Amino acid sequence: MMLQSELVEKVRAYDPSADAEALVRAYEFAMKAHREQTRASGDPYFSHPLEVAGILTNYRLDTASIITALLHDTIEDTEATSAEIAELFGDEVAQLVDGVTKLTQLELQSDRAKQAENFRKLLLAMSRDIRVLLVKLADRLHNMRTLHHVPKEERRHRIAHETMDIYAPLAERIGMHDIKDELEDRAFRELYPDARDSISRRLQFMRSEGDSVVEAVLVELRAVFAEAGIGADIAGREKSPYSIWRKMQRTQSSVEQLSDIIAFRVVVPTVSECYQALGVVHGRYQVVPGRFKDYLSTPKPNGYRSLHTSVIGLADHRIEIQIRTRDMHDVAERGVAAHWVYKETGSGPASSALREENRQYRWLQELLEILENAAAPEDFLAHTRLEMFSDQVFCFSPKGEVYSLPRGSTSIDFAYAVHTDIGDKCVGAKVNGRNMPLRTALQNGDQVEILISKNQTPSPDWEKLVVTGKAKARIRRVLREQETRQYVDLGRSIVGKAFDRLDEVLENAPLNKALREFHAGSTDDLFAMVGQGVYTGRDVARVVFPGKADGGKSAKSTNSIFSLRRKKPAPSGGGEHAVPISGLTPGIAVHMAKCCYPLPGDRIVGVMTTGKGVTIHTIDCMTLEAFADSPERWIDVSWDPDSDITGGELVSRLNVTLMNEPGSLADLATTIAGAQGNISNLKFTNRTADFFDMVVDIEVADAKHLNAIMTTLRGHKSVSTIERARS
Ligand code: MN
Predict the structure, then answer these.
(1) d(CA 448, CA 434)
(2) Both 184 and 209 in a single domain?
(3) Which of 295, 311, 526, 580 could form a disulfide with 643 if both were Cys (CB 3.0 to 4.6 A apart)?
């Protein structure tokens, strides 16, 4: 085990200003905290944090990171507390240790490989300070180095899979290539020992075969380019067994068939020399068809530029060659993001998301370079925040599944992301174990448990509380269906009432015959149209029972069965109908006001309007205030007791607030119909989770009739308020 003095020496070697005293204290604190704990290998547990710290010294990390490495398992595994660490080592270290502890806890929550990408992003997003991530990766690396000590194969496999799916890509993503390679290779060895052995043996054999192939190719290529007068830098690199194996799987080929087990890079001074070099190679060796790619004239979306080709015969092998300039080479090597994007997503049209990812990655890559080269790394490390996924949050289900959601998403979005049914039926949410309002915006790492009730349906309010398209679309659709159902119920009861008047029973068979005339696809369609006021119940009755309905006295109110309901058959004094108003010059035009809808029995007043005749208002109508200054236009009128205008001829308007619950609208309609009223129009003015506000136009005999209906409705528990329109 490394001594404290050795550790201090290592750090001091690259950072002479490092706080040796703090390092020693952390060393002793962690050793004491882990005391008798042991690793699977039988080693004292403290050897693990110490090794992690050692790995990080290779990356020349600052003292706070090294101390964090020493302490990284103390909160999770020992009695040490965050407060204690803050007191002994300061807030900065305490926060870093907290960050690593959180990642460790996250790691325990999910083992579902298929969510690996979300999980990686979550880890990145959660580790707001890049040092947290670096410590975590070093932690994983040491755990992989000691994996063979873990006795249970199942557990070893789980850890290896997780490493392959999550940590290796994460390491690659932040530019830690050697860590990535080692993680992958160790996981590969654990999961597919036979495959790795056979590839390694094969590579060994190919290497030994007539000295080194790489060396032979290098010698031959150098000679070829020298002869052509091209000054080229040439390098060859053997790929790792794991990447060869992956490629073999992808292309269904054997090791021998893989031309790019060894790839050669030819770096030349200028673009024109790139093409010259290509010409030389193609002139000399047989080209493998379909392998030539010109990323020089057509760069990859991520900016990668190079010429790729494969030839046969170079040192008796099939060889892949990449040709580029020094600048292009630098970009390709430095902007590893480019490499990552290209490998993970394949080549494709440049999307802005790709470019964005690339840009974000570049930034991180540059940061790491600064770290490697900086004299005082802590200047750059401290307070560096990872904001790579600032537009997303990552949340867990209780089972540990990770969901990625746009920032600002609520528990309702989460519920819909899990399943449409869960969304529809959600009544509440527990976030991190606590009941929270559904509107609460979720944070990274929140664990969300959705509470459901089978009676719940989406509320109109929800539309404003969600940000995901899936949730929005679904909520809208359900609300529309609900509304349609309400209209169907309403229409059915209106038609039923109309049939009642003719002593007919509402049955589907006769209705079906009428569907075509109403351009309805089904009886429900027809009911919905009646409910929405497109047709009246009488329109339907007239078509279904032609002779019967025409004989009734209601026939005079409209001429066409297709007349829209909203064209109310309001009495008009200028027409042929009797005006139920006395006190007016015969022949003058009379209108019932469309603000207060007066009914016989109401106290009324007429207002003279130039060119329009007289408009009748109720005495308490708000509109009358507008005429307060012109008393000369007011006319005393009263209802004509001898008029034969009766129920169904006059329309009045009610403002109703109804509880939003199943059947409440149909209940309203049934009650009105049962009291001999006829709903001629119905319109929602406002809908909330709990209530509908709506306007109901209703044909009644007189004010007394309407009052009776209103009184009955007030007795219903689903009716919250009901009053006549007065303005
Ligand atoms: Mn650890």
Answers:
(1) 9
(2) no
(3) 580
**Highest mean pLDDT: which range of 138-152, 329-343, 373-387, 686-700:** 138-152
Mean pLDDT of 663-676: 84
Per the domain annotation, does 162 fall within a domain?
yes
| Same domain (yes/no): 184, 253 | no
* 176 residue type, one letter: M
Please identify every residue annotated as catalytic: 76-77
Q: Are residues 63 and 188 in the same domain?
A: yes
**Number of domains composing the chain:** 6
How many Cβ atoms are within 10 Å of 112's Cβ, its own excluded? 15
Distance 275 CA to ligand 1 centre (A): 51
Instruction: Report yes or no on 664 lying in a domain.
Output: yes
Q: How far apart are CA 31 and CA 566, in angstroms?
A: 85
Taking only the tens place, the pLDDT of each residue in 386-410 is 444 557 788 888 877 778 888 899 9
Does residue 346 form part of some domain? no
Both 397 and 519 in one domain: the answer is: no
| Domain residue limits at 661 | 650-724
* The token pair that represents 629 in the structure block: 């200054």
Q: Please indicate, yes or no, whether the overall pTM of this predicted structure exceeds 0.85.
A: no
Answer yes or no: do 539 and 663 share one domain: no
Each residue's pLDDT tens digit, 572-606:
333 333 457 777 766 677 888 888 888 888 888 88
Supply the pLDDT for residue 333. Answer: 57
Question: Across all residues in the chain, what is the average pLDDT?
Answer: 78
Round to whole Å and give the CA distance between 572 and 552. 21
pLDDT band at 707 (very low <50, low <70, confident <90, very high): confident
Q: Are residues 157 and 25 in the same domain?
A: yes
Q: At a CB cut-off of 8 Å and minimum separation 6, what does 421 contact?
A: none
CA distance 524 to 417: 32
Q: Which two tokens stand for residue 342?
A: 């290209």
- What's the CA-to-centroid distance between 56 and ligand 1, angstroms? 13
398 within some domain: yes
The residue out of 620, 639, 658 marking a domain boundary is: 639
Ligand 1 centre from 154 Cα, in Å?
A: 20
Helix axes 63-71, 20-34, angle to 10 degrees: 10
Residues 508 and 605 grouped into a single domain: no
Q: What is the pLDDT of residue 278?
A: 92
502 and 542 assigned to the same domain: yes
CB-based contact 568:680 (threshold 8 Å): yes
With 80 as the cut, is the pLDDT of residue 463 above it? yes
Tell me the pairing of strands 426-431 and 448-452: antiparallel
Interval between CA 638 and ligand 1 midpoint (Å) = 92
CATH number of domain containing 655: 3.30.70.260
179 Cα to the center of ligand 1, angstroms: 16
